[in-house]
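Posting this for the archive.
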Amino acid sequence: MSIRYKTIIGFKYSSILYNSCLDDEMRKIITRWRLSSHKLKIETGRYKNPKTTLANRLCKICSVIEDEKHSIYHCRANRTIRNKYRTNLNLIDDNLPKFFNPESIKEATYLAKYLFEIEKNMEELNL
């Protein structure tokens, strides 16, 4: 798990998230994703009984492993949301550590809204 965390976050402390006046609800959603405390198959498959093998933790829409990178950058189910935030967030280079470590409150706000909309979309589509 620590290896996965390092690839997602890079062990970088984000002062924008934790030492600023960012809204607590926005901070919580970003922190949840930073800690892999979300409902993506990459995480929920670990808690199934019997445990779902990594190779079978697939996105229902795309049939690839449903992890943070897939949901944020590639999933067809989130295409409209991605297009909405494309100009406000760096959604081009697949760099999760950069993505999850915003450099301004404005960027953190867009990040939280984007992640919230992905979660809402997943719930609505029953993914």
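The mean pLDDT is 88. Residues 9 and 97 are 4 Å apart (CA to CA).
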